[in-house]
Amino acid sequence: MKLNRTRKQILRALMAKPSTFWELIKEQDGHLAHFTQVMEEMLALGLARCEGSYIYLTGKGKKEARDQGLSPLQPLTCPTCGGKTVTLQGIFPRVLKEFEEIARQRPPAIVEFDQGYVDTMSTVARVAIMYQRGDLENQDILLIGDDDLTSIAIALTGMARHITVLEVDDRLVEFIDLQARKKGWTNLSVYRYDVRHPLPREFQGRYDTFLIDPVETLPGIRLFLSRCAMSLRGKGSAGYFGLTHLEASRDKWYFIQKLILDMNFVITDIIHNFQEYELEREGFVSKNYPLVQRAFGPLPVPDTNWYTSNFFRLEAVAKPRVPEQENIPAGRELYFDDEAYATLP
Amino acid sequence: MKLNRTRKQILRALMAKPSTFWELIKEQDGHLAHFTQVMEEMLALGLARCEGSYIYLTGKGKKEARDQGLSPLQPLTCPTCGGKTVTLQGIFPRVLKEFEEIARQRPPAIVEFDQGYVDTMSTVARVAIMYQRGDLENQDILLIGDDDLTSIAIALTGMARHITVLEVDDRLVEFIDLQARKKGWTNLSVYRYDVRHPLPREFQGRYDTFLIDPVETLPGIRLFLSRCAMSLRGKGSAGYFGLTHLEASRDKWYFIQKLILDMNFVITDIIHNFQEYELEREGFVSKNYPLVQRAFGPLPVPDTNWYTSNFFRLEAVAKPRVPEQENIPAGRELYFDDEAYATLP
Question: GO cellular component annotations, sorted alphabetically (chains A, B) (predicted)?
Answer without folding.
Answer: cytoplasm
